[in-house]
Structures are given as structure tokens and as C-alpha cells.
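Ticket #4471: structure export looks truncated?
Reporter: QA, pipeline team
Priority: medium

Steps to reproduce: submit the single chain below to the structure queue and open the exported record.
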Amino acid sequence: MIIGLALTVGGVWLLTLDVSAYYLVAWLALLLSAGLLWAKRSAAQWVMALVLIATLVWSLYEAVLNFWQLEPRLVMPAVLGILLLLPWVRRKLFPLARTANLSLVVATVAVLAFAATRQVGIAGSADFTAHGDRYSPLDQINAGNVQNLQLAWRMRTGEDQGGTDAGHEFNFEDTPIKVDDTVYVCTGHSWVEAIDASTGKLKWKFDPNADTRPDVYLACRGVSYYKAPAGTVTDCPERIIAPVLDARMMALNAQTGQLCRDFGDNGYISLKQYLGNMPAGYHFVTTPPMVVNDRQILRRKSMTNDQPMYEQIKMSIDRRIEAEEWPSDFQIPSEDQLAEEFGVSSLTVRRALRELQAEGVLIRIQGRGTFVVGPRMQCAVFTLSNISEDIAQSGGVHSCQVLAHLTLPPDSPLRSMLPLPAGQDIYHSRLLHIEDGTPIQLEDRFVNAAEAPGYMAQDFTTQPSHSFLVRNTTVTTVDNMIRAVRANEEAQSLLHIDAGQPCLLLDRATWRDGVPVTRSRFLYPGDLYSLRSSHEARPSRITSSLFNVKNR
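Actual output as written to the record:
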């Protein structure tokens, strides 16, 4: 009865959308069957049998022999028919209604047999412009002559002649597509190649110059074909849509192999939008693109998906703010709207927003909503002094408490702090620096194991991590960002500060010729430190430093 009522409401809604009235008629009949079933009348089975037979006839009329259109029309009625045929239902409700039982059996079997024997494929087409089909309507090659097939041609993509990256897993996983007289394939390095279907000769090849260095797995699952509707003004009426390994999507002219400049940004779109902080090598497209109603659909895998959802929401919001999609003073969507967008509870969204507020990224105004905080002033920071030396120079005594010193496990969410390929070790140390018994700095440091051999053997209670890294690593680029934040509860407890007390956060990343070396976050109580900058009058000669100016 409940199912019948729900489906009847759906049938009314579909009728308002100018969809076939059959849905409403069938579900009203199903509602009648439910009422007869409630009254334990055998006529319920007769009505259900009529619904099944009528649905089969109507489905054939509306969807012909298209399996994927028949499946949603036939499966639900068949399941309900099977339910009425279950022994404990049939014997209890209709012990004497053999004729009605037989009619329902015949109708249910007919529907299931018809659906099960439908072949899946693109009827009447010699082209394969999409993936997922397991049946071809072409009959020139069949079970009787398949053993006589001979090789017509062979071609090589060229990647086995110097294209394979040493140390990276490389596979050819493409399912080719055929359009007219051309076969299209993609390779592990995101090359797209058009091949003459008759001769195997290469027609054209396009190389997007994908940055494959951070990736440990090189593969492309396939491309898709799209033909613009008649009358569309474009230089690319026929397109090949293809993923690029470095988290891009591109559109190529199917005839010439040139980029379609009216697609995205000169032929490319980024797949990282709304994904927050997505390190290079952590994004992989797992399916060929699928074009449905002029829209592209694909499935991706993100190696950062092991992070808690509230962290992923924070990264996504940060990304939108950095891209200025949410500019300063912008009122962000409500908690309920964000919960619906990310498919999580309001509590998860609330935690993400609360932490972003504590970090000074967002501000909540009672009765009005949550807003993006205005722009922060940025300046260059080139020097970071040795904290133990600073304390000694001021006459204090430095000590260090090691809170964590380990190699991060492969599934740790903290691995996203340093953009390195999966399988490459990352060291993490968390240190609390103390002056004369007072905690003054909380240090979280992430280190590329390959760049700092011997790091895990060090005793950081006797020497600062900074000193070891200066002596044993080579750094060519340093990036620093300082901002005012509110510490979380754990940091408040470690630094012995109040909940509302502001802190200075120094976020520092270092590289050697583009290879990440370290990522460090230093948290200072705001009343113990200040930022001092000195520079010459010319703007290009700016220098600044962070000094310990403990109030005494």
C-alpha cells in the first residue's frame, strides 16, 4: 500500500512534466492490487498480472528493444510480482486461488524472460563512440568464423620507444572507439592518437605535455566522441574528449587533432576545481569521459579522499577563497546548503566552519551569517632564526618536548601536507619548545625522507630540527606565510593559553629544484612574538625577519 501510494504520487508528478500517463494508470492499478491484497482477495493477483502484461506491452511500445530503457520500466513490477509469489505470502493470503496464482506466475516469468534475453549494444551502428557496450549488432564476424580471423594490421603508440617513465607503473588500458573510418586511442602519457581503421596508419597524434613526474601510475582508460548539434557555430563540430594525467580535460578536433579553442581555457579545463588542496599526482581519472545531453561525466579517484570529510570541506572552501570565487566579505552558503552539497551532516559542516573561523579564514556574525575575512597583508620572510640560540642570547634556558617523531603510515591524512607520490616516505615530528618552563612554540614539521637521510635517528631534545636540516639538506626555494589564528583546544593546552588568545602561525615550505623538501608549521602565542620588517626604499629590496620579543 505504501509503495503504491508513493509511486502514484510520482506518477502525478510525471504527468505534470508531460511524461506518459501510463505511469499514473499503472500505479493506480498497483494501488488497487494493494487494497485487494489487504482484504485478502485473490483478485489482487489478477490485477498484478494485468499490470505486468500491460507494462511489458507499453515498455516495448515506448522503448522498443533498448535494454537500458527497458530495465527501469520492467524491474520494479517484476519484483512486486515475485513478492506476491513467495510461498509464505501466497499460502497465507490465497490458499485456494490457483488460477490467479498461475496467471501471476506466467506474467512474471514473461517479463523476466524478456528482460533477461535482451542483448545490450548499439543497434544498427557500425561505430563505437562510447564505452560499456558488450554486444555488437554487426554479424560479419560470428561464432562460426571467428577462428579464421587473421591479423589485418598492427600499430604501436610509440610509448614503448622511450616514452615509459622509469620507476612508474605503466600500462596500456585504453578501450578504443571507432567513428566512421577512424579509431581513437589514448596512452599512459595522455597522448591521443587517430588511426585509420582500414590500414592502421597514424592520422594524427596530440601530446598535451602532461606532467607525469609526480604520478606513480600512468594509464588512460579511454576517450569519447562528441558531435555538436546541427547549427552550432564552432570550429570543432566533431570532438574527441580526453582526460590528461595532470588533472585536466581537453577537447580535440576529431578530424585534425588540434585543440578546440572554444572549449574551456583554449581547449583545456581543470579537474581540480572545488577539490581544495590537491597535490600533484594525487588525482586520477578512472573512466573514459561520457557525454550525455551535451554534458561530460567521468569518475575520478583522489588520493586525499582518506581525509576526514570536515578536512575535505575545509580544503574546498580554502580553494574557493584562494581562487576568489568567494571574495572578501562574501557571505558563504548556510550550513544546510553546504551539508547538501557535500552529502554530509550539518555537524560535519559546522566543525569545518568552526575551525576555519578559529584560523581567521571566516567570521560568523550573529543573525547575519558567515563571511569571508578580508584580505591579509602579505610580506616576504627570508630568515628564521634558531630558537635555541635566540633563547640563549636572551639569557633563558631552552628545552624541547618531543610529542611525535615517526614515519607517516601510507593511509595517514597528514601525508597531504607534503605533495609526494604514494609510497614515498614522509617523516613527521611534533615538538614543543619551552623557555624557562614556559611553552613558547609548537612545531609541526613534515620532511621528505629521501631529502633528509638520518632525520629519524636524531634526538631533538638536544638539538633543534632546524639545525640538522640546515646542515644536511639542500634548499633552493622557500615559501613563507604568516597569519593570525586562534589555536585549537590541543594547542591551547600545550601552549598554556586561553581559548580566545590569538596566535601567530608561520607556514613554511621548502623545495630543491621543484622537489618538496619540508613543510613546517610554527605556532607562537601572540603576546610573546611580533613581526618586524626592514627594507630599503626600493620595493624590490625587501627583507624581513621573525624575532623573539618576549614581554618581560
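Status: closed, not a bug. The export was complete when the record was re-opened. Leaving a note from the reviewer for reference: The first helix runs from residue 2 to 16.
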